[in-house]
Automatic annotation (TrEMBL):
SUPFAM superfamilies: DNA breaking-rejoining enzymes. This is Site-specific integrase. Coiled coil: none annotated. GO terms for biological process: DNA integration; DNA recombination. One of its GO terms (molecular function) is DNA binding. The keyword DNA-binding applies. Pfam families: Phage_int_SAM_3, Phage_integrase. InterPro entries: CB, DNA_brk_join_enz, Integrase-like_cat_sf, Integrase_catalytic, Integrase_recombinase_N, Integrase_SAM-like_N, Tyrosine_recombinase_XerCD.
């Protein structure tokens, strides 16, 4: 018999389940108490037997939070998320969550313990960072609920710290000129110019091949990205369907890329090679993929020398979007160009710019609507109506 039920008192039943041999060959048993009717205990026993047959059984009562984290990383994150996401989650779990919560039994993880961790973590970490820890913990516990280890996600009952919205740094048209002038002698000038002109992410720019550019029809296809993981540059597909997209380019960018390609073809010809369609648009000095860290370091040094200290490479993307909005481009068009998941997300990210455009919008409306004409209609009213119309507290009823 693999499992049976015995009475433990009034409305209390104990399930004893034979779960097989342990590492040392000793028979292992699962003990669980169910309160209610015998039929409730029988249903629970049946569920356990099914989980044994399917190979999904786990002694959840003995499972610690640390054990669950590792199961989640290996069983879900590794197969459903990118390697970069896996590395990020693993780091947060190993460095922060396991030292603070890992020794607690999963079934005994209460909201109070989680809330206490957030309070302690906020003493040394930013609210944004702790909020990201909450997202990782929430998702892992959500997985535990789906697997039947928990009845409810305790992270749902916790109030994570609200991250402060960062002030977005964008370049003015004048600052754009200063940056491009300072970058002209840099090996990275082409990628900087294209970042400002297209709004592509750094990883998308570094993954571009010549076959992804249509200089006749002025379009860019984002089909692969380049990331650096554990010191190695890797190419992979864009993370979402929205990121895999076609983006229009300006005529000026097309002219620039034609000239840039001609230079690259001359360089390849000197090396007795041909610049093929699968060749990367932007490469390092030795023709290898551009190291993202090297580009970031060189850009930081460049903007500091140009008197624009504090500007990140990613701010070129924000500058592109801001200039587009200020020139009257519709949020939906910009959202599609940026590869955002929704127009609402774009509106939220650039809400401060959109709100600042109200004065311009009112000026446009003022130019369209005719001037109003004030008529002395009050004089034509009866004395009673005049009194009501001129009274500041007049009401009808």
């Amino acid at each position: 018999m693999r499992g049976y039920i015995r009475s433990k008192g009034k409305q209390s039943w104990q399930i004893i389940l034979d779960t097989g041999q342990g590492p040392g060959g000793k028979r292992q048993r699962h003990y669980e108490t169910v309160r209610g009717r015998r039929s409730d205990a029988q249903r629970r026993l049946n569920d356990l037997l099914v989980s044994l047959d399917k190979g999904t059984y786990s002694q959840s009562g003995r499972l610690t939070v640390a054990d669950h984290f590792q199961n989640w990383l290996k069983g879900y994150v590794k197969t459903n998320c990118s390697p970069r996401t896996l590395d990020g989650y693993q780091s947060i779990i190993d460095v922060h969550l396991i030292p603070a919560l890992g020794s607690i039994k999963l079934k005994q993880l209460h909201p109070q313990s989680i809330q206490a961790y957030y309070g302690k973590a906020c003493e040394s970490l930013s609210a944004r960072t702790v909020h990201h820890h909450h997202r990782v913990l929430f998702q892992s516990l959500k997985y535990a609920v789906r697997q039947g280890y928990l009845g409810r996600n305790p992270a749902e009952l916790v109030d994570p710290p609200a991250p402060r919205k960062k002030t977005m740094r964008t370049l003015t048209p004048g600052e754009v000129e200063v940056l491009l002038e300072s970058a002209q002698s840099s090996h990275y000038y082409p990628v900087i110019y294209m970042a400002l002109s297209s709004g592509l992410r750094q990883a998308e720019l570094l993954g571009l091949r010549w076959r992804d550019l249509d200089l006749d029809f002025l379009s860019i296809s984002v089909n692969q990205v380049l990331y650096k993981r554990r010191g190695v540059c890797l190419f992979k597909e864009p993370k979402t369907a929205h990121s895999r997209r076609r983006v229009s380019m300006t005529p000026k960018l097309a002219i620039f890329l034609r000239g840039y390609r001609a230079q690259r073809e001359e360089l390849y010809a000197d090396l007795k090679q041909k610049l093929g369609l699968d060749a990367l648009v932007f490469t390092g000095i030795e023709g290898r993929p551009v190291d993202p860290c090297s580009l970031t370091h060189a850009f930081t040094k460049l903007v500091k020398g140009a008197g624009l200290e504090g500007v990140r490479f990613h701010d070129l993307r924000h500058t592109f979007s801001s200039l587009m909005l200020l020139r009257g481009a519709k949020p939906k068009v910009i959202s599609e160009a940026l590869g955002h998941s929704s127009v609402a997300f774009t509106m939220d990210v650039y809400s401060h710019i959109i709100s600042g455009m109200q004065e311009d919008a009112m000026a446009l409306l003022d130019g369209v609507l005719p001037a109003g004409v004030v008529k002395n209609s009050v004089a034509k009213m009866s004395p009673t109506l005049q009194k009501l119309a001129l009274s500041p507290c007049s009401s009808v009823g």
